[in-house]
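Chain particulars:
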Amino acid sequence: MDAARLQSSFAVVSAHGDRAAQHFYAFLFVAYPELRDLFPVSMAGQRDKLLQALGHVVSHVDRLDQAVPYLEGLGRDHRKFSVVGAHYAQVGQALLATLEHFLGEQWTDDLAAQWSAAYDLVSGTMLRAAEHAARSQPAWWTADVLEHERRGPDLAVFTVRPTMPLTYRPGQSVALECPLRPRVWRFLSPANTPRADGTIEFHVRAQSGGELSPALVHQLREGDQVRLGAPVGRQLTLTPGGGRDLLLIAAGTGLAPMRALVEQVEVETAAGVPARSVQLFTGARSVGDLYDLPTLRGLEAAHRWLSVLPVTPEERGGDDVLGAALRTTRLAEREVYVCGPPAMAGHARDALAAVGVPAAQIHLEDHDAGRYTPSPAPGPMTAAVR
């Protein structure tokens, strides 16, 4: 397959922006109206994300061997949307129909065959993984909300317990949906290592204009139920069994997976793994926004290998958490993990590389890292690894 030709043809369609997305969904829902129920009630957050994700993945089919682990994870994760085998073919038809409509005379039989073959490779990889997963795990886990605590006007910490065991690694994420916003899934990172009682703690901030996060902060209550998807992501996970000292940099609720990594080191050290130094920089807009500091101070008091350094502009003369962390000694000898707003993550890689941290030792919560698709969107075929 001619990957360059696939990419250039998709660029032509992408230039039409929302018009292309509207055509895609119009075809999909007219031809297969039953698919509408797989998507959120409001499509405002969806728009062109599905079309862009599909086109981006398929047009980079020349890198498919590198993307197989990601695509397999994507296929397993999509089971939570109630996606079945027939849906892959239906979405593929809508993609090809949209390409044909906007490419006009450029759409030839040969180009159509190339797009069809590329899509079949991608969807086939996802579908096989989904079918394999269906033999051993549910499409989603129902979980009871045991505790819900507001820790600020726009922030909550809540604890759930799945009704079936859910295994994950610290630093991974799970998609979450609740009846308050049906079919709207968002990724959250557990703030703890797996516990014997199966409980999972989540931290969430209500995003202005967000579809799900305001409901989780302001409306979710003890006794409610949520649904959780399969754990995904490898960017923020630690290699088990010890290793280099760690520098953890968290801003806002990006603290959640960083705290889970601290707890992993705690568990490993108790099991006899040689202790490694862990420095955790946690940043917030103000001292009052350091919502989990008492828990962190408790961990710090219990372990000599851990130091917690809160960073707020009012205490650091306007310095942000990344700037404060960059002054850490022996940076190049550490594994560095960063989790926070996309703007910080985007800047962190270059900033850390500039002070001598090897690329292989920089771990970011970057939804686009190591894969082809854009950021996650609420709907089938668009969930992304985190």
In short: The chain has a mean pLDDT of 87. The longest strand covers residues 141-152.
